[in-house]
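Morning!

This is the sequence you dropped in the shared folder:
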Amino acid sequence: MVFLGDLTLRDVPRVLSIAGTDPTGGAGIQADLKSIAALGGYGMAVITSLVAQNTRGVRSVHTPPTKFLEEQLDAVSDDVTIDAVKIGMLGDVATITVVREWLSRVRPPLVVLDPVMVATSGDRLLAADAETALRDLVSQAHLVTPNLSELAVLVDEPITAEWPTALDQARKLSLAAGTVVLVKGGHLDTEGSPDALVDTSKQLGSAHDREVIEDGEIFEIITPRVDTRNSHGTGCSLSSGIATVMARTGDWTRALSETKNWLQDALTHADELQVGQGNGPVNHFHQLWAAAETQPSRHDSRMD
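The structure's back. Tokens below.
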């Protein structure tokens, strides 16, 4: 089991996102930084890939030299104490190797891996020969957050449309990699949208919430589905949000609960943004903006 390292809880955790870009701001690094900020963290970013994409799809991907990736990583870790790392799009074997070696050398206290393989549009974002390397990287993460397609690849099984089967696949991955797995059911044809933390080491949660954890290893939350096509970047946002809340609280179940509630609100108000002609972004800052609108405006006496 990958145990948390020297995790010191902070009111404003310093969270590093290692991921690709999205020029329209809905996914990748841009979504990560918004999510980290919305959930109370200080976001930092290391770019793995420059992605020419919009809300309708991916046009091309440019991968900078791995030496530059290594220099970005070292520039951050040589100067800043990193409380949590969220890893997103890695793209190829060389990129995965650099990140894996950096993790082994720096040993961040909290690592969340979102194994990005396919974009919402269906465009492939991971080279086929990199799948084995990504499986190896899973064992260095404290939490891995695959969607159903990615989960199937990681356990080398067919993609399932059944939630109990997805939970079984998550158990297999947790046992094989020695890590906590967040299995996501957002793409299922079900009335609600389920997400579940699966930990075969049975160390989920704190004493007060153990009664809601099935067999000591599964903590599940089901929220109503939101009728919107504007869900671009939900996977990125969820994983970076959990990394942030976990670095504040040290509790996986609270991290999922708080992040899921925030993301539900972001999805509910996504249509208000009106960004793009395809699958638009979620509304990362709706709660902050709504709270600001309830505050009385300052009165400038000089205008009297």
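Headline: The first helix runs from residue 28 to 38.

More detail when I'm at my desk.
O.
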